[in-house]
Amino acid sequence: MKTQSKLYVYLTISAILLLIIAVWSLNTGVYDFAGKSAFEVLGKVIKDNPGLSLSDQYVVWDVRAARIIMAILIGSMLAVSGTSLQGLFKNPLATGDLIGLTSGATLLAAITIVLGGHFRQYLPEAVQFSLVGIAAFAGSLLSMLLVYKISTSGGKTNVVMMLLSGVAITAIGFSITGFLIYISKDEQLRDLTLWNLGSLAAATWMKNIILGIVLIISYIILLPKGKALNAMMLGEKDAQHLGINVEALKKQIIIITALMIGSCVAFSGTIGFVGLIVPYILRLLFKSDYAFILPLSAICGSILLLTADTFSRSIVEPSELPVGILTALMGGPIFIAILIKFKKSLS
């Protein structure tokens, strides 16, 4: 009970910090609200105040608020997916972007963007609307299954093989995506460029509703798995002796992480290293207690991505820097730090 109380305290502190960053993000931007704060304007929008100008309503609700919610949802899912994969494979380098999931999702989404016009009209209308999202999920799931098959033998996953197979899938995905960029039209080229760099500029409330549904379904399944992932740290045989259905746990984590990463890539493009940075920092504070770091990563991922996105649209005003560039800039040094630590443990 004491441990549970500590977790609630940390979650509350993290949630308050996220709320403060959200208010700061809402008030950050080049648009002038004529002496009013964006927070005041948002309050009037919620109360349906008829005295507001349409431009004020649009900027604060459809641009900034929608973007903030998307950053919170995507940052949370990327962090939780990274934490879950690292617990499953017992390695801090097992994240969606490093083992090829993001690349697979990006590849099939890119194929749909460039070539979808040739077959889209033959599909049901409901499928047409979410075709890119379905393709991204399928690419993520196929990549995960391929990496798992290549790197697992006799029930044991070889981490080096997993990373190398991820590198191979990423290289293949990059080359085919590069070819698609070469043959694409101007509008498709713009979409693909935004996709590869990662951006939340295309946030809408409909996309947030879809992401929210994916998040709720995923978290109902994943967040209670903290103790099971702690047991997995002892090894698969020991986990089975403790009553963990290891194979069912693997399938659930693989499918759900593929769903989350595919959904995130479908709406924001390639935003890397969130699933590496957040678990790394949380492990420094709480060791490898997944009962702690799994739920905390859900909020800390939101904090990281929302902060990065707010900086990305304020560093080079009035333009904006793709948020994927900033997360890669933060994640690179942490990736090197993990490699150095891993090197020391080998010696």
Question: What can you see in these coordinates?
Answer:
One of its GO terms (molecular function) is transmembrane transporter activity. This is Iron ABC transporter permease. Its main location: membrane. One of its GO terms (biological process) is siderophore-iron import into cell. It comes from Chryseobacterium cheonjiense. The chain has 347 residues and is an all-alpha fold. It has a single domain, classed as ABC transporter involved in vitamin B12 uptake, BtuC, CATH 1.10.3470.10. It is 76% helix and 1% strand. It is built from 15 helices and two strands. The chain has a two-stranded antiparallel ribbon with strand order 1-2. Helix 4 packs parallel to helix 7. The two termini are 40 Å apart.
